[in-house]
Amino acid sequence: MGKRNNPPSSPPGQYTHHWKMDENKTRNTILDTLCLIIAGEIISILASKHFSWAVTIITLTEVLLFGILAFLARKNPYPSVLSALFLFIIISIISAALKPTYLGGSIIIKIFILIYLVRSIADARELQAYKRERLKK
Fold it and tell me: Which helix (H) or strand (E) holds 18?
């Protein structure tokens, strides 16, 4: 995602901004995060000696909410990514409060998800601006 100047359709010497946006990028980011959350939950279950239904139910709720956000990301990418980031942080805190030993098994995946979502904010904001601009025309 990003800007491309002087697309093949523009005359030579004319400087125009042409936004080539991949509308599925934000949705795919959220779906990738969803898969990493599931992988993190599996690692946490395998690393822990005691199973926690509460954390598993919270994780299943998180997966469901991320699926809904991925569906909504097609129309509203920026709010979807911000909501996914906020949801991920809140649910990680709740899971850690309920079962602190679960956090140790998947801390690297949680850090990776956090970085992944934060880095996708700029692309989502760009795509949202592009969509607004396109709607005005």
Answer: strand 17-20
